[in-house]
Amino acid sequence: MRVAIETLGSRGDVQPYVALALALLSRGHDVQLAAPAQFQGFVERHNIPYVALPGQFLTLLDTPEGNAAIAGGQGFSGGLKLLKHIRPLMMELFDREWQAV
Fold this sequence. Notes:
By secondary structure, the protein is an alpha/beta fold. It has helices at about 10-25, 40-45, 55-60, 65-70, 75-100; strands spanning about 1-5, 30-35, 50-55. It contains 5 helices and 3 strands. The longest helix has 25 residues, at about 75-100. It is elongated, with a radius of gyration of 15 Å.
């Protein structure tokens, strides 16, 4: 079976998919993991075929504006404040994910 795993998030989001990919590979499946560029070394150290996704989304979350939206408990409204920045990043991300699969 061919499996394409795609994730966007922190290491806590990527690490479980590394475990899943390793389990699938050990059972003879063809697996590819696409994750933010920041995790390339982490994924490749486990000999998992990897596709780098744009990491600007995670970088945006590390800005003061991104931290305020997340930590401020603003929920959906906090995300709306970042929408002008997120929309172009997401379009690029979707294009890259499409290419990966």
